[in-house]
Design brief:
Elements (H helix, E strand, L loop, with lengths): L1 E3 L4 H5 L6 H6 L14 H6 L4 H4 L3 H4 L13 E7 L4 E6 L4 E5 L3 E3 L4 E2 L7 H4 L1 E2 L3 H17 L7 H7 L1 E5 L3 H21 L1 H6 L1 E6 L9 H13 L2 E5 L13 E4 L3 E2 L2 H5 L10 E2 L5 E4 L41 E8 L4 E2 L9 H19 L16 E7 L2 E6 L7 E5 H14 L3 H17 L7
Bound molecules: flavin-adenine dinucleotide (FAD).
Protein name: NADH:ubiquinone reductase (non-electrogenic)
Family: Belongs to the NADH dehydrogenase family.
Organism: Chlorella ohadii
């Protein structure tokens, strides 16, 4: 085991991972955010190549190339707050420790399964580039397998059925992309097989539940017209079956096992509990110097997936009024929530929290931080989702009272422009613009590698 010495500000910040929010912690020193994951639906069918939207962290955060800063491609296994150490392990099994003064945890979330048996083994999550590559391969495999001579009609039917569980923005975007792929590209290859291809969305509540009612209706109309079947229901063990060749599971997010294993307090939904200044919380255990420290126990809240509650975090606020910040440890992004006011798992939340923490920590580093920092204030900028073809829905402003909401071609242009301008580097924007142009001119292909 190797132990690394105490490091300076940037290194202290970079300890926990390499995702969206931590890139932005150091943004005040230089960076550009990456919205690559939002294009996952497009990469599933090859509208955009995964490589075009996958940006190396050192390009997102050029400060990591400076010799005084470090980036370790390794998994964080544990945090030891008593010794201010992060325990890490490289992919080839080398264990090492990183010492910190300030630690920011932004390890994100993972797809939630609600404990339903078989979801992990038999469905596909869509959380990163490797998932979309896998989905694309599986889709092509099913398309090819359905055409083998001797295949029974029932089996052919199953192979040509794509089921998407979850009608949120990701599920809807994938359904729209798939319907478009079938109509514009697969139809040219084999019209009969393309006609038999089916896409179904299963949603327990409303399609695009967080959007305005008129946009929800517009989306449902557009998807139905494109041939997508909308089923209202819940996937459960009641004996009913819906045969499929490919199932994409997109029902929202839950905590990762790593976050559940941490020795800090968690909300009922398993996110790290933070206060309004993003400081990680614990029931108080005062040291003689007056500081509050985590005591090495796992902390209150769920510790395993089974214990993660489905009730809303804010239903449980009375239980933790006395929780206090653990010295020098912050959390941001999907992995954490303020129990009284849990924010959605969105890139814009992680981005704003990253900028806020960068300001707070920079001020502290320059000894301007004697005063308590202002609480973090989230400003919801809006939501958008493409719904297939050249249509999208868009809402600007507060989620509960949007300033503007509209759907159609102009929203689709706004959707594409927003994502293109926010991609990590100029090179990646050029890749994506190139992919879109090639798709428009020559269609998507069904090659498999
Ligand atoms: C398909 C899809 C579409 C989306 N579309 C939108 C959208 O349109 N708009 C929007 O606002 N948001 C969208 N989101 C949500 C958005 O991507 C997340 O909210 C955002 O990425 C959260 O940032 P984060 O830094 O908290 O976590 P992430 O971006 O998930 O980063 C976490 C990182 O931590 C790493 N990590 C995890 N555990 C460890 C460990 N133990 N050690 C080391 N590293 C670790 C992970 O590998 C990952 O790189 C979308 C998400 C998905 C999956």
């Amino acid at each position: 085991m190797r132990r690394l010495g105490r490091q300076t500000l940037l290194r202290q910040l970079a300890a926990a991972e390499g995702g969206f929010a931590s890139s932005l912690i150091t943004r005040q020193l230089h960076t550009t955010p990456s919205d690559a994951v939002k294009m996952a639906a497009s990469t599933c069918v090859g509208t955009v190549e995964s490589r075009s939207v996958t940006v190396p962290i050192v390009d997102i955060q050029p400060a990591l190339k400076q010799p005084q800063n470090f980036y370790y491609a390794a998994a964080c296994k544990a945090i030891h707050p008593e010794d201010k150490l992060v325990e890490c392990c490289s992919e080839d099994g080398l264990r090492f420790f990183v010492q910190y003064d300030q630690l920011c945890i932004s390890t994100g979330s993972q797809g939630s399964t609600f404990g339903i048996p078989g979801v992990e083994q038999h469905t596909n999550f869509l959380r990163d580039a490797s998932h979309s590559t896998h989905i694309r391969e599986k889709l092509v495999d099913c398309w090819n397998a359905a055409n083998i001579p001797g295949r029974s009609p029932l089996e052919r039917d199953r192979l040509l059925h794509v089921v998407i569980v979850g009608g949120g923005p990701t599920g809807v975007e994938v359904a729209g992309e798939l319907a478009d792929f079938v109509d514009r590209d697969l139809r040219k290859i084999d019209p009969g097989r393309a006609r038999d291809m089916r896409v179904t969305i299963i949603e327990a509540n409303e399609l695009l539940g967080s959007f305005d009612a008129s946009l929800r209706e517009y989306t449902a109309r557009k998807l139905t017209k494109a041939g997508v079947q909308l089923v209202k229901g819940v996937v459960k063990e009641d004996g009913s079956v819906l045969p499929y060749g490919l199932c994409i599971w997109s029902t929202g997010v839950g905590p990762t096992p790593f976050v559940l294993s941490l020795p800090f307090a968690k909300t009922p939904r398993g996110r790290l509990a933070v206060d309004d200044r993003l400081r990680v919380l614990m029931p108080p255990k005062l040291r003689p110097d007056g500081h509050v420290w985590a005591d090495g126990e796992k902390g209150p809240g769920p510790k395993t997936m089974k214990e993660v509650s489905m009730k809303q975090d804010e239903e449980d606020t009375d239980q933790h009024r006395d929780w206090q910040p653990v010295g020098g440890i912050y959390a941001l992004g999907d992995c954490c929530a303020q129990a009284e006011n849990p924010l959605p798992a969105l890139a814009q939340v992680a981005e704003q929290q990253g900028k806020y923490l960068a300001r707070v920590l920079n001020a502290q580093a320059w000894s301007l931080g004697a005063a308590e920092p202002e609480p973090f204030q989230y400003r919801h900028l809006g939501s958008m989702a493409s719904i297939g073809g050249t249509s999208a829905v868009l809402e600007l402003g507060d989620a509960k009272k949007p300033l503007v909401s509209w759907g159609g071609f102009t929203s689709w242009v706004a959707w594409r422009s927003a994502y293109l301008t926010r991609l990590g580097t100029l090179k990646h924007r050029a890749y994506v613009a190139g992919d879109w142009t090639l798709t428009l001119l020559f269609g998507r292909d069904i090659s498999r590698w």
